[in-house]
Amino acid sequence: MNWQLLPQFVVSGLLAAGPIALTALGLVLVFKSSYIFNFAHGQLLLLGALMTWWFAVERELPLWLAIVLALGFSAVLGLAIERFTLRPMTGQPLLSIILMTLGLSQVLQGLALLLFGGAQRNFPQIFSAADPYIITLPWLMDNRPLILILKQNLVWSFVAAMVGVILISAFFRFTPIGLAMRGASEDHELAQSLGLRIHRIFGLSWAMAGMVATAAGILLATSSGLDLSLSIVVLAAFPVVLLGGIESIPGVIVGGLLIGFVQGVASAFKVQWVRDMNEIVPYLVLLVVLLIRPEGLFGQKRIERI
Question: Cα separations (Å) of 291 from 130, 239, 286, 287?
Answer without folding.
Answer: 43, 14, 9, 6
